[in-house]
Specification:
324 residues, alpha/beta, Rossmann fold, six-stranded parallel β-sheet, 11 helices, globular, binds NADP nicotinamide-adenine-dinucleotide phosphate, binds guanosine-5'-diphosphate-beta-L-fucopyranose
Length: 324
């Protein structure tokens, strides 16, 4: 089993690297080498190949000839970057996904696990959202470029199965956070953005400014939990149909509650203000993890506050090197 991970240098890719290494160390301690001998892992970054180019994508896949692929590479960003660049999100991601899936097929990869996102679901919907509802109506207008490009992966997967019998599938994670995230205030997601802003506010003695009303609600998944679930999907999940990877509906928090948790994790003691001139984005995208629970009833998610504390500690310790 030779596993090629596209986007291996990003938030989720680094988490998968961490979990694979952890597993190898555990096996070494137990004196077993079974999985190490069975699995070879290759992590790609954009420096190895620009996956927007079919030529470079094909060359990378021919060089490594993976039997299995985890496809993470994407143009990714938080609400505010999505609102500015819907065209780029659409075009670049469509090209990357088409190139990667076709190159995987050409070298005979038997399984590909790609990555969607709960923002691909319809904006006007009933809750909780589940895997059967991906194509039921337009996504939220703030990120329609990214969302439609991601939805098309599901079309690719069903067509590769129908025409070629390939088991190319996708996972649908909720908002992800963790070490090695993109902590850019302008372009990143809410948690890394708030962590960076709180760190700076503490240093400068200024208020923390949370964007929007704080009312929208999100389910957050820790990148290391997501990485563990990714490995299970790669090794064991048998379906072409996608699967939501999410904490429970009861673990959804408001942006205001998430900001309070960041303040607590970083021990910030200044004022917290809300800038309601900034967009709120989609109000919520509450997803059901019932399908995941049918397969993995005992999977333990890291408690949100513990995962957030670990992420904040990582950011403080790696401030100079962190992406921001
Ligand atoms: P990330 O940290 O921004 O990482 C993106 C990865 O894609 C990096 O490894 C980057 O390589 C690579 N990449 C971007 N453009 C590329 C190109 N043209 N050619 C080759 N590689 C390219 O993103 P992430 O948060 O880990 O996201 C991973 C996956 O999870 C994505 O498919 C994303 O849509 C999905 N997802 C993320 C979230 C979230 O909240 N973050 C939520 C749901 C789903 P470099 O490091 O070299 O730039
Ligand atoms: O993570 P985020 O940017 O994206 O969160 P989405 C946006 C929510 O957090 C909005 C509020 O309600 C914002 O008003 N917010 C508060 C902030 N302070 C901040 C801040 O400092 N930075 C940011 N970014 N937001 C994204 C999609 O949606 O979800 C992407 O646009 C992607 O395509 C991702 O799929 C998972 O959850 O709204």
């Amino acid at each position: 089993m030779r596993v090629l991970v596209t986007g291996g240098s990003g938030l989720v890719g680094r988490a998968i690297q961490h979990v694979v290494k952890e597993e190898e160390e555990e096996e070494e301690e137990e004196g077993s080498t079974a999985a190490k001998e069975e699995e070879e892992w290759i992590f790609l970054s954009s420096k190895d190949a620009n996956l927007m180019s079919m030529e470079e994508t094909r060359a990378a896949f021919e060089r490594h000839r993976p039997t299995h692929v985890i496809h993470l590479a994407a143009v990714v960003g938080g609400l505010f970057k999505n609102m500015k660049y819907n065209l780029d999100f659409w075009r670049n991601n469509i090209h990357i996904n088409d190139n990667v899936l076709q190159a995987a097929h050409e070298v005979g990869a038997v399984k590909v696990v790609s990555c969607l996102s709960t923002c691909v679901f319809p904006d006007k919907t009933t809750y909780p959202i589940d895997e059967t509802m991906i194509h039921d109506g337009p996504p939220h207008e703030s990120n329609f470029g990214y969302s439609y490009a991601k939805r098309m992966i599901d079309v690719h997967n069903r067509a590769y199965f129908q025409q070629h019998g390939r088991c190319y599938t996708a996972v649908i994670p909720t908002n992800v956070f963790g070490p090695h995230d993109n902590f850019s205030i302008e372009d990143g997601h809410v948690l890394p953005g708030l962590i960076h802003k709180t760190y700076r506010a503490q240093k400068d003695g200024t208020p923390l400014v949370v964007w929007g009303s704080g009312a929208p609600r999100r389910q957050f998944i820790y990148s290391l939990d997501l990485a563990r679930l990714f490995l299970w999907v790669l090794r064991e999940y048998p379906e072409v149909e996608p699967i939501v990877l999410s904490v429970g509906e009861e673990d959804e928090v408001s942006i205001g509650e998430a900001a309070d948790a960041v303040v607590e994790a970083l021990g910030f003691n200044g004022a917290v203000e809300y800038d309601i001139s900034k967009a709120d984005g989609q109000f919520k995208k509450t997803a059901s993890n019932a399908k995941l629970r049918r397969y993995r009833p005992d999977f333990m998610f890291t408690p949100f506050r513990q995962a957030l504390k670990e992420t904040c500690d990582w950011f403080v310790e790696n401030y100079d090197a962190a992406r921001k």
